[in-house]
Specification:
CATH architecture of the largest domain: 3-Layer(aba) Sandwich
Shape: globular
Bound molecules: (2S)-amino(hydroxy)ethanoic acid, manganese (II) ion
Oligomer: single chain
Radius of gyration: 22 Å
Helix content: 25-40%
Length: 394
Amino acid sequence: MTSLADIAGVGADPRRGGYSRHGFDRVELELRTWFTEEATRRGLDVECDRNGNLWAWWGPPGDGAVVTGSHLDSVPGGGAFDGPLGVVSALEAVDVLRAKGFVPSKPFAVVVFAEEEGGRFGVACLGSRLLTGAIAPEAALRLSDSDGVTVAEAMAAAGLDPALVGPDAVALRRIGVFVELHVEQGRGLVDLGAAVGVASSILAHGRWRFSVRGEGNHAGATLMVDRRDPMIAAARVVLAARQAATSGARATVGKLVPNPGGTNVIPSSVDLWLDARAEDDARTRAVVEEISAAASAAAAEEGCSVTVTEESYGDTVVFDAALRDSLSGVLGGVPALPTGAGHDAGILAGHVPTAMLFVRNPTGVSHAPQEHAEPDDCAAGVVALAAVLEELVR
Ligand code: HGY
Ligand code: MN
Ligand code: MN
Ligand code: MN
């Protein structure tokens, strides 16, 4: 049995949360080795698809499979459960089903998607986006990390052939239905007093890079009136994000990089990344436009320039209501709730029948070490996932 402590083992690995590269890099590859060993130990046959996603098959691969899984990578400083809970629970659900003598009557797989957080290359759900064609191979391959290492180089170093990257019709045809179990990133289930819930929708959300250019100079020798300081304009963008995010919208600047980044140096440029989300496309776009207008005004007043580049975007996802409600029914009528967090399930939902199960997070916190799920709730999640998978295979 994969003990739920493995979540702590895999998810809470200090290298994982404290590591900011992940995608096809050392720590993610070690986590994938762990998964391969755990899946193989269960008699599952593990293969890696052309885009770096891992598939552990219970029986022969085939079209119309029941597929479950999630991701193992993390955001920098992330918690132990975002991703690993879905992977460990999938392996444990296989244990539960096997223990009751269940043998899948249709193809069945556990999947681990690559680079879900986009922590290394900046595009979330890179593995599932490549699989579905949501990102063009050439656009993905030239993405680079903070050291200038491209996706193509990272994949090659991980033993993958970058020339094969791209939409994978075979892998997609094999997915008959996909169910992702995930720790809830919020307090919805806490407030509802429920251990498990099903997902109703995902906010529209995306990432935009603001590059502010000014004039690098000496911190001491340059009079304030003589400055063209991009940090001032960048600071005004951060405040504009807060002001624009009204009526349910969310806007975050979690990453800001001055160049060159010396304490006694007025930066020549500052790059910052905006994460904006709202209940629909129009609202999200309106928030970004308002922030971009504020950025242009701030740059002009500071004698700087600013360029805004959309790096990834996904419209609102509404999960199939019939599937959602049928799974809720299998579980005795667990509540359906929306999420502000993106998931590989959100990418697949546009292509195959897709659902999500959420497990209660008593802190409601995510993308931080305080993210949590109690062992009893994790166990309830495994039981729920096993029941749902058994129903879907029927
Ligand atoms: O950023 C997100 O919403 C997800 O956790 N990748
Ligand atoms: Mn996440
Ligand atoms: Mn996640
Ligand atoms: Mn000096």
